[in-house]
């Protein structure tokens, strides 16, 4: 077993010991869908109007919520705790590189995010009597790029935050405005034009839109996919370069 697989195994065990993280991945998105989706159970797409009326919006925002919480809450806080407890300093004396540790964190959180996506898709199909994603390749691409983009931002926060408390503050401070721009509370078609345009290309907004389009059987917007991919590349490069052991 090489260094990466050992790190992944350890990080997975630590993740599974945290009930709050498991709640974010499985219980919260499913509960959100049941609370807001049961009144629309069995409804036909033709009856829905507006961003919040679209039947694909609820599962899309639920999936994006899962990804966002893993990326901006769980991931930075875990690395912040490691830094506070001098775990990173001790690892720095071993052959483990910062990039390897970041990769292990990403792998574990990605697996949990995929598991959450499967539970969400099954919940939509079995509990809400709504169809599964119609454009599966587009859905997978949009989901993975959304994960890459948001995780890159989370890793950058983890690289810059000096402590777990700082990471715990920065993540939510960034997460809730992004959630607003995604249209979670106010549909973007009711926002001012400039704000709606910004939300369309924000990390969570682009994730919600591309997942929603693929779920409805459409092709996700190439421009939004490129924004997600570009943010992921830049964020990962900066996180690797700026990551500090202590």
Outline the structure in words.
The protein has 246 residues and is mostly helical. The chain is globular. It has one domain. Helix 1 (3-16) crosses helix 5 (98-126), helix 3 (57-84) packs antiparallel against helix 7 and helix 3 crosses helix 9. It has 10 helices and no strands. 46% of the residues are buried. The protein has helices spanning 3-16, 19-37, 57-84, 87-91, 98-126, 136-160, 164-181, 193-200, 203-215, 222-242. It starts with a helix and ends with a helix. Its main location: membrane. The chain crosses the membrane at residues 20-38, 58-79, 100-124, 136-158, 170-187, 225-243. It is found in: Cell membrane; Membrane. Keywords: Antibiotic resistance, Cell membrane, Membrane, Transmembrane, Transmembrane helix, Transport. It comes from Micromonospora sediminicola.
Defining key terms:
mainly alpha; 10 helices; 73% helix; 246 residues
Strand and helix layout:
Layout: H1 3-16, H2 19-37, H3 57-84, H4 87-91, H5 98-126, H6 136-160, H7 164-181, H8 193-200, H9 203-215, H10 222-242
Helix pairs in contact: 1-5, 2-3, 2-5, 3-5, 3-6, 3-7, 3-9, 6-9, 6-10, 9-10
Order of helices and strands: HHHHHHHHHH
The stretches of 5 or more residues where confidence is low (pLDDT under 50) are none
Number of domains: 1
Residue share in β-strands? under 5%
InterPro entries: ABC-2_transporter, ABC2_TM, ABC2_TM_bact-type, ABC_2_transport
GO molecular function: ABC-type transporter activity
Membrane topology: Multi-pass membrane protein
Transmembrane segments: 20-38, 58-79, 100-124, 136-158, 170-187, 225-243
